[in-house]
Amino acid sequence: MRKGRSAFTLIEMLIAVSIFSIMMLYLYKTYSTLNISNANLEKEVSKIQKIQKIKKVIFLDFTLGIFNPRGMVLINNREKNEDFVVLQSSHSLHRRVNPYVTYIVKDKILYRLESLKKFRSYELSSDAKFDVDVIGEVKSFRIYKTTKKTQSYLVAIKFKSMDDILLKVNPLNEY
Where are its TM segments located (predicted)? Predict the structure, then answer.
């Protein structure tokens, strides 16, 4: 009579290893799918963060605009889908005090220029000193001003590869 088994048989070991291998295969597939989902989610989050950053910059530029009697914002319609916008704001990305901020479209790319001197025309002079921020490639960039006594602006930007922006802005420094 046998007293008891002290070890697994070879068949029991093969069955256990087979079951473990099948479980690992499914776990690896699940892990791979999770990594793909995380990569897609990361791309979408970065797109949303970029759009939110652009909205924040535009919002702060216009809401912190400095009032002057002739109007706070100079809007010049360059083409059907492009505006040239100049304003003085207390918002600065480059540590300037009350800079002039210009939004300009060149070769379908929207730029934000920040300078201590006001740009008078669309053509930039060679002696102008400014910092440039690239906003993105656009189909159209338009700024609309309300005709009412209160100054508010509607910023409409259609991007080629990002979500469009439609933003209503009311200046805080209004008199």
Answer: 7-28
| pLDDT digit string, tens, across residues 148-161 | 777 788 999 999 98
> What does the block give as tokens for 128?
């102008």
Dihedral (CA of 66, 70, 76, 82) sign:
positive
- The residue extents of the domains of the chain are 11-175
Higher per-residue confidence, 120 vs 69 = 120
In the DSSP assignment, the letter for residue 69 is T
| Residue pair 83/76 in contact by the 8 Å Cβ criterion | yes
Question: Mind listing the pLDDT tens digit for each residue in 61-77?
Answer: 988 887 665 666 888 88
Q: DSSP characters for 70-133?
A: T-SEEEEEEETTEEEEEEEBS--SSS-SS-EEEEEEETTEEEEEEESS---SSSPPTT---EEE
SS3 162: coil
> If phi over 0 gives left and psi between -120 and 50 gives alpha, with beta otherwise, what is residue 49?
alpha
This model's pTM is above 0.70:
yes
CA distance 60 to 92: 9
